[in-house]
Design goal:
The chain is an alpha+beta fold. It is 30% helix and 28% strand. It has helices spanning 17-28, 58-67, 80-87, 96-102, 105-114, 128-138, 165-171, 225-244, 278-281, 286-295, 322-327; strands spanning 9-13, 32-37, 49-52, 70-73, 122-125, 142-146, 156-159, 177-181, 187-195, 201-203, 208-212, 215-221, 249-258, 261-268, 308-315, 331-335, 346-354. The strands form 3 sheets. Strands 9, 10, 11, 12, 13, 14, 15, 16 and 17 form a 9-stranded antiparallel beta sheet that branches. The chain has a 4-stranded parallel beta sheet with strand order 3-2-1-4, sandwiched between helices. α1 crosses α10 and α2 crosses α3 (80-87). The structure holds adenosine monophosphate (AMP). The site of adenosine monophosphate (AMP) has 13 residues, from β14. Adenosine monophosphate binds next to β14.
């Protein structure tokens, strides 16, 4: 891969808060940002150029590719065909293989199993008959999740009773789904790994993640001993996944800490909500290392800047607390500039670092 030096233009496909924070890290290193998204969003405020077009618009995609020196993406539900079209002209990193695997829950689980990882038992269901058979095979309780386009607990239905199979099928709106056995875990955590084009990696201290209603509520480091005891095994798996995908950029893998060891849940081929605390909590944030990796720059240190760091998401109305958060010593406030504070919408986050 050729070096993309500061002063070059980085294309970001997707216009959300992850693109906004990537853009801020890129600007710090002297890059220009060009956002491609179907509608304006939080990333626009930090971009010097914006293409507002659909992911099916081949002409605009081609023009965007020509305008950028390297292209990355900030959410994994971009149609593969759109990125393949861009990749004809301009390098797309992380590569398309990572995106293809991460776009489908059954593919990513099978992929990780193939590399020796543990997952919940799972089965694919394409219609209600297959759903009932899958629930019988996996056993109850189970969770039904759409194979594609699910995030933040959307497109998911727990099933505790066979009589509720039909209801679960309605929740996933009859889309191809997987049935997963419910994992008994003590904690959830993630492994964040940055991999450069030379294959060198940097691992972040693994955060303990707590979810509320399927949405990440907070991430904390250092993680408690139950996670620390399993982190090395999970990190070794993450290294194997990154190598197998010939990955370049920041990769996130989510795990359950269980009595049997770490159980892989899902991966994201991008910067991740559970890594937002790295902006102030680590020498080189996940956003900066992603930019460094895709541009062929050396990766930066992932050492903690303090004794502890904790990130709390500001969901919906919680962002209205911003005046008090600004007064709080040690609190770093991030607001994403979204106008409407709908319930469940990520409006910002706050990171507290203890020195
Ligand atoms: P996901 O969209 O797969 O990340 O699921 C969102 C959240 O639901 C996870 O972070 C867990 O808290 C919970 N969850 C998902 N799958 C399972 C499972 N198989 N067993 C137990 N809890 C789960």
């Amino acid at each position: 891969m050729t070096l993309v030096p500061p002063g070059s233009t980085i294309g970001i496909v997707g216009g959300g808060q992850l693109g906004r924070m990537l853009g801020m890290a890129a600007a710090q290193l002297g890059y220009r940002i060009h956002v491609f998204a179907p509608a304006s969003g939080p990333a626009n405020d930090v971009a010097s150029a914006f293409t507002e077009a659909s992911y099916q618009d081949c002409e605009r995609l081609a023009a965007f590719a020509l305008a950028c020196d390297v292209v990355t993406y900030e959410f994994e539900n971009v149609p593969l065909a759109a990125l393949a079209l861009i990749a004809r002209e301009t390098p797309v990193l992380p590569g398309l293989k990572a995106l293809e695997v991460a776009q489908a829950r059954h593919l990513e689980k099978a992929f990780v199993r193939g590399l020796g990882g543990r997952t919940a038992p799972f089965a694919v269901a394409e219609d209600i008959g297959e759903l009932v058979a899958a629930l019988e095979r996996i056993g109850l309780p189970a969770i039904v999740k759409t194979i594609r386009l699910g995030y933040d607990g959307k497109g998911q239905a727990p099933v505790r009773d066979m009589a509720l199979a039909r209801e679960a099928w309605d929740v996933v709106r009859g889309q191809p789904s997987i049935v997963e056995g419910l994992v008994e875990f003590t904690h959830e955590f993630s492994i964040l790994i940055a991999r450069g084009h030379d294959g060198g990696t940097r691992l972040y201290p693994p955060p303990w993640n707590v979810h509320r209603g399927g949405i990440l509520h907070r991430s904390r480091v250092p993680a408690p001993p139950e996670i620390a005891a399993q982190a090395a095994e999970a990190a070794a798996l993450a290294e194997r996944v990154a190598t197998a995908l010939d990955y370049v950029g920041l990769l996130a893998l989510e795990f359950f800490a269980t009595a049997d060891g770490p159980v892989f849940n899902e991966m994201a081929p991008r910067v991740h909500n559970s890594g937002h605390w790295t902006i102030e909590g680590v020498e080189t944030s996940q956003f900066e290392n992603h930019i460094r990796a895709i541009c062929g720059l050396p990766l930066g240190s992932t050492a903690l800047t303090g004794a502890r760091a904790e990130m709390e998401n500001l969901i919906g109305d919680e962002a209205a607390a911003w005046p008090a958060l600004l007064e709080e010593p040690g609190a770093h406030l991030h607001l994403y500039g979204k106008d409407e504070a709908r319930p469940g919408r990520k409006m910002g986050h706050v990171t507290r670092v203890a020195r």
